[in-house]
Amino acid sequence: MNIKFFIRTTGERTLHESIKRELGDNYTLLIDKEHKPVDSFIKQLKQISEYDAILLEDDVILCKDFKKEIEKVIKKYPNTVINFFTRPTEYFSTVFGLLQFVYNQCTFYPKGLTDKIADKMIELREPYNQYDTLENKAMRALNIPHLRPRPALVQHIDNTTFIQQSASGARRCIWFKDYLDELNIDYKDAYTLENKEKLTQLMNKKFKGEK
């Protein structure tokens, strides 16, 4: 599949080593030097519109065999917006529909669609909008459904963000594919109290000493 990879960043964060491991140099940085998350996001959506694109943010860890894993999903839903990281604290099965679009750590956008989303965001924009809130409004107005696959193929590095500094709340996800594989837990069984505890302990171990 001819997918282009883009990474949103302010240029302040060192990318996790998994990005080099999984993508090599096969990505383009989209840099918001002015810390204008909504303006930059709209501009970036227009930049990537001519490609089948994966848009990443700079605060992620990619799972092992990332490209292979995302391509499995995209091949099943080639003309669909796919949000590979959302609602990190919730357990749910893969779902498709006109859902609330939140988080944007790793999203697949089919060619030609993001230009339409960007135009609708400009039309609907209000002063208080966060970029993912505004994107959700635009996608709903355009009647664009999206897929939320599980398990998560990326992990959020930490509980801080440079891209949208007003954002807050828990962002790490125990349903990360690498954790499930390491513990040999099938995702369909990951919701049990025992397995949630195992996954939580492993995640905390991975992030020990980090904020």
Give the helices and strands as they follow along the chain. EHEHEEHEEEHHEEHH
Uncertain residue ranges: none
Outline the biggest β-sheet: 7 strands, mixed
Integer tally of domains: 1
Instruction: Choose one word for the global shape.
Output: globular
Q: Can you give the mean pLDDT?
A: 91
Helix content: 25-40%
Strand order of the main beta sheet, please?
2-1-3-7-5-8-6
CATH architecture: Alpha-Beta Complex
According to CATH, the fold-level topology is Spore Coat Polysaccharide Biosynthesis Protein SpsA, Chain A
CATH class: Alpha Beta
Protein model, in words:
- The chain has 211 residues and is α/β, with parallel strands linked by helices.
- It has a single domain (3-206), classed as Spore Coat Polysaccharide Biosynthesis Protein SpsA, Chain A.
- Helix content is 35%, strand content 17%.
- The protein has 7 helices and 9 strands, in the order βαβαββαβββααββαα.
- Strands 2-1-3-7-5-8-6 form a 7-stranded mixed beta sheet, covered by helices on one side.
- α2 (37-48) packs antiparallel against α4.
- The protein is globular.
